[in-house]
Batch of 4 targets.
Target 1
Amino acid sequence: MAIDRYVQHIRAIAKQYRTFEKQIDATLIGKRQYEYYLFGDDFLGNIIEQHSFMLLRSLEKRGLNHLADKLLLGLINEEFEHKKKRGFLVVEKNNPTHNSLVITQRNILKKFVESDLFLQTVKKKDGAFIQQFYYSIAAGIAMIFATVISFFATQRYGNFTTDLFVVLVVSYMMKDRIKELARYYFSSQMSRKYFDNKSKLSIRHQEIGWVKEAFDFVAEDKLPEEVMTLRSRTPLVEAENEVYDEKIIMYRKLVNLSREDIEKYKEYRLSGINDITRFNLLHFTQKMDNPTIPLFVPDSEISYEKLQGDKVYPLYFILHCESEENTYYKKFRVLFNRSGIKDIKELN
């Protein structure tokens, strides 16, 4: 049975790891390294306990727990006794304060032991030097305009006259506007080439690549044709869009990985990274209407029934992923309201 094999393999893995302690001399490797070994032992017990309970609950939902109760609970009890023997924290009944500490410690252990599976990032603004360079050009253009106006005004009106004073004030006002317009132009041009942030990726201080990110609101006529085709608004939504423009957010991410630098990392064999992007819906929900509204349906010729319907708001995600090998698009729809997310669906 699969459960038998699961329990056998888990016990063999735990035994193999814990056998190493007999080969470890704490006086030679140092106290800190020995503590790292104990952290791994504690974490291993947590993982065994967590997944065994998940498996047990899954079998209970299917009415099959009678086939594995004894085996799985036996494995879990073994880990509990091992933790108590080693002085590791275990969950206690009727002790919420202690159990809160157990959860905190488990989270810390998870982050520490799995640290090799996560990348360290150092963020900085992308193109900061180029941005300041272009802004200085904008200031220079504005200064040239003001200087030329001042020169010709002095030549015509002379020094310390009312006319010269008015011309200099107007030229200063125009100089300030020219500077801001030039900065706006350079910023819009830079956004096509440069990103908002650039993050260096590293594993154990070994740099393996970088990620650039940019975020902006875009006009509909600036979208690629493929994206508009995927969006495919219904006639009703299209009519609404003529009155209330649909807000479009563009998030760009450029990832560059160095195969040579990745191969220098010898601890694990890596073929790439898992990049997780989080999108916070909390600010959207703060201004939403009530999550439910009353609905009425006729029950008979003389009565009716009152129902409660969910009022949801749609948010569409269109993903455009491109690499050296292929390009693909995906479309998702998220339905949510003030109470939270109601449905997430990939649309064809």
Target 2
Amino acid sequence: MDYAVLRERDGPNVELLHQESPSPLNPLGVKGVGEGGAIAPPAAVANAICDALAAFKVEINATPIKPEHIVRAMATAVTPSVARGL
């Protein structure tokens, strides 16, 4: 209640400029937009799987990770009870 909501006239003057830097790699000079968002999720999933299987000493370093990859890694892994000598 003590502060008014800012309005357009309360802000600074803004000048909109466009900067072009065409790509020299293709005839149209265009660049891709948005593809970068598809890079991080597979790595995050792979890290989550490795964290979940850390007790089994499972390390998966390639994507895509299929269920059979996890089963194969678990079959060759050292189980926690074996690692502790139980």
Target 3
Amino acid sequence: MRITDWLKTKFKNIKLFFKEIWTEGKKIDWPSREETIRYTLIVIVISVAVAAFLGGLDFVFMSILEKFIF
């Protein structure tokens, strides 16, 4: 097999790969703008709640530790 034939085969495979990606990408059921905003807000609210909870635990444990250390 010559190098030119090998390159043609590789480029054909790469072209087929990206064509299949494009075809599969069309099948994705993307969320609407409203759903995306709602899900983003849910993630932000849960993240803030978890951060506040963990911060509260940290404060409580540090207060307990300070009583034993000092």
Target 4
Amino acid sequence: MDSVDTEVLKSAANWLAAGQRVTLATVVKTWGSAPRPIGALLAIRGDGLVSGSVSGGCVEDDLIERVRAEQALERPQVVTYGVTKEQAERFGLPCGGTLQLVLEPLSKSSGIDELVRRLGEHELVSRQLEMATGDVTLSSAHAPDLLEFNGTVLKTVHGPRWRLVIIGAGQTSRYLAFMAQALDYQVTVCDPREEYAVGWDVDGAVLDRRMPDDVVLAMKMDAHSAVVAVTHDPKLDDMALLEALKSPAFYVGALGSRLNNAKRRERLAQFDLSAEEIARLHGPVGLPIGSKTPPEIALSILAEMTAVRRGALDPQKALVPRGTAPASVDPLACS
């Protein structure tokens, strides 16, 4: 599964290869309650076909008409929606939200083919667009890099800016790895067990056969990293958690019941972890949505990761036991 912006870029590349005229719209600034985040992409084909979204449907029709009417942009240009109350009402922008977009006419020299190729190799890529000339430069990027626009140069960052390490290659891991890739995560699955590793077949998710603690240490977890342990085997899960909880990873979780996670915290306390580090553990992992099946459990885990990542859920509040039932009910670990 590709991330949303990669799908947009792939569509643009395919249309260009077919000889179609293509315009790429990028959200570069927002004010108020804008419906889509900075960096959101929309590719518009000359005949009005689109891929992606920059406003959830609010301004797309106007952009299509603009592209059709102008037939062919010669240079990138800036377009702003929602400056006035009337315009906000016309385009359905909520609560006076305002969007500023860069419209860029694409060509073979726009580097879209190379960008898609590098994204296919799981590379994080920075794309720099000169507004005056339309010239494009591609270079390697780093996880903390963000979109920058000063009116003269537009720098966008593409690829998996977030990393997820899953300990265990079981059934839940398959759904978790598949869904996580759609959310811009570069996924690594760690499982040294032969019987699980042999059957691993999730495209795009790297399988690492080393011991979990070695994998976590080697990957140098940062604030854009998450670690989730799902093997039910303390010898594997705890090894990963010991290193992950000492790292800057924004999310560390472990599957299992409240009782199992209480026992896990007791085990972790016997090692060189502080009480504050142990308190970072999300266990039971995931939001309390009543999940029972592997895909539902994966959904609850990613929902909580997203809430923490977006600042919608206080990480400390998320660690306090909730109610009387596990957040993610794992039928195999309810003892």
